[in-house]
Amino acid sequence: MKTIYTNGTFYTFDASKPIVEAVVVDNGRFIDVGTADEMLLQWGRTESKVIDLEGRAVTPGLVDSHLHLSKVAISLLNLDLSGVTTKNETLEMIRDYATTLKKDAWLIGRGWDENIYTDGTLPSIEELDRVAPHHPLFITRVCEHASLVNSKALEKIGYTKSMTVPEGGKIVVDEQTKRPTGLLLETASDLVTAQIPNYTYEELKQALRKAMQLALQKGITSVHTNDPKYLGGLDQTYRLYDELLNHEELGLRCNLLIDHEYLPQLKESGMYAGFGNETLQIGAVKIFADGALGRRTAFMSEPYADAPNEYGSPMFDQEMLYEHVRSARALAMPVAVHVIGDQALENTLDVLDEFPAAAYRDRLIHTSVVRKDLIKRLVHPSRIADIQPRFLVSDFPWVEERLGKERIQWVYPWKTYMQLGVLAAGGSDAPIEPINPLLGIHAAVTRRKPGEVYNGYNPEQKLTLEEAFRLFTVMGAYPTNEERIKGTITRGKLADMTVYSTNPFARNEIDELLNIDVDMTIIGGKIR
User: Fold this and answer.
1) Three-state SS at 2
2) How many CB atoms lie within 10 A of CB 332?
3) Which DSSP state fits 379?
4) Neighbouring C-alpha atoms within 13 Å toward the C-beta of 105
5) What are phi and psi of 294, to 5 degrees?
6) Fewer C-beta within 10 Å: the chain N or C terminus?
7) Distance between CA atoms of residues 286 and 324, nearest Å
C-alpha cells in the first residue's frame, strides 16, 4: 500500500524542489513529491494511506556517520561519569556504585573528564583504592583514550615494572616513587579489558536493542558504527545486528566498521565492503593512527604548547600503518582511519597516496587538528572526513592552552572544508558525545556551548544551519557511496525522514534548536 505524508514542510535538500508539502512512498522509496493538492489528486484516489503531519517540519533522515552503538549499549549497563565536574563527586559516585556490586565484582564505568573538574586533578590510585576497596576498577575517560584503575585491577593483570605494554600504550608511573598512578594511556587498557569477564550474548543483545531504540528516538535513521572489539568479535557482532535488524526489524540502518584486527575473519567469512542489504552492511576497515588531545596522545607535527617536550605518539610506525592499509586493500576494502593530530593525518595521507582508491571512499575520522596543506590533500572524490562538531563544545577553551594561539585556527575548521571542497559527514562518536544530532548541528552553527553568551570559538568557521543539517543528512550517505539512494527527499531514494515538533529553520534563537523534539523517525516509509 502506498503512503502519502502530507501537510508538512519538507526540506528536501534537493535543489530541483527544495521545499515540498507532501511525499508519496511505495515499497520503501519516494515515488513522488510536490504540493499537498497535487499528491492527493494524483495518488489519493488509489488505495493509499494518508498521514497528516499537521504542519510539522521534515528533513531527510538524520545520519550519524561515526559512533559506537556497542559502547552506548554497554554504558547503559555500567557507571556513567559523563558531565561530572568535580573530582570529589567522581569519587562519591564510584563509592556509591560500588555498594551495588557483589564483592570482588569488576567496577566498570566511563566518562570522566579532568578538563572540566573545578577542584583539582585526577583521582590518585590511593583515592580509588579507598572508594572501591573490594572491587577491581576500570573507568575510561570520556575520549576512551585513557582509563583509571585501582590496585586490585593492577593485581588482576599481574603488574610488574618490567611487564610488556601493547604498542602505543603506557602505564603512567609517578616520577618520584616509580609506582603506578592509576592512569593508563591508549592500548595499555587492553591489559585490563582482557581480564574483565565477557557479557553474555543476551545481555549484549538487550543492551544493543536499547541503544538502537535511543538512536531512533533522536530521529536517527542510519548510523555508521564501530563495534567488533566490544561485542565479542566480527562473527558475533554481525549476528547481533542481523538478528536485531533483519529478523526483529527494528528499522535502523547500520553500516558496520570492522577493526583491522578482524581482517582474517572478514576474509574467511566472505564478507566485504557493501556486503548485506539496505538495512545492514559491512563498511570500511577501522585503524587508529593516534590518540586524543585530552591526554596529549594525539600525534602532532609540533610539540604541545603546554608540554613543550611532548608531540603525542603514533599508534603505529609508518611501515606498520602501510601494512594495515595494504591488508585492507588486498581485500578491496576502504579504510576508516582515526586521525586527531595533524602529523597523524599527514602520515595517513602519505600512506593512502601509495594505493589506488577502493570502490568505496576512504574515511578520515575526526581530523581535529589540520593544516592548510593537509586540507588541500583531503579534497579528493574518494576521501571523506567524518567530523564530530560536538567535540568543539568539549574541547574548548582548554584546547587553546594545549595547542597555542597559532595552531588554534586549524582546530575544527569546517567552514574552510566547505569552501575548499572537502567532503565531510557529521557524527557524534557516541558515547564520547551524546547520541543526538541536534547537539552536533547546534555546535556546528554556534561553535560554543548551549547557553553561552559568546560569539563562538573561531567564529569565522561557523556553518549555516542548512550546511550543518546537510552534514547529518545529505553527507551521511557519502562515506558509503550511497548518495544515489539516500540523503535527500527525492523520487527513487529510500524514504527516510525525520519529523520535528517545531520547525528548526523558523526559530528566533539558535539555542531554541535544542528544545525541539523529534516527533517521528520514518525509515523506508514506516514510522519507527
Assistant:
1) strand
2) 12
3) -
4) 13
5) -55, -45
6) N
7) 10
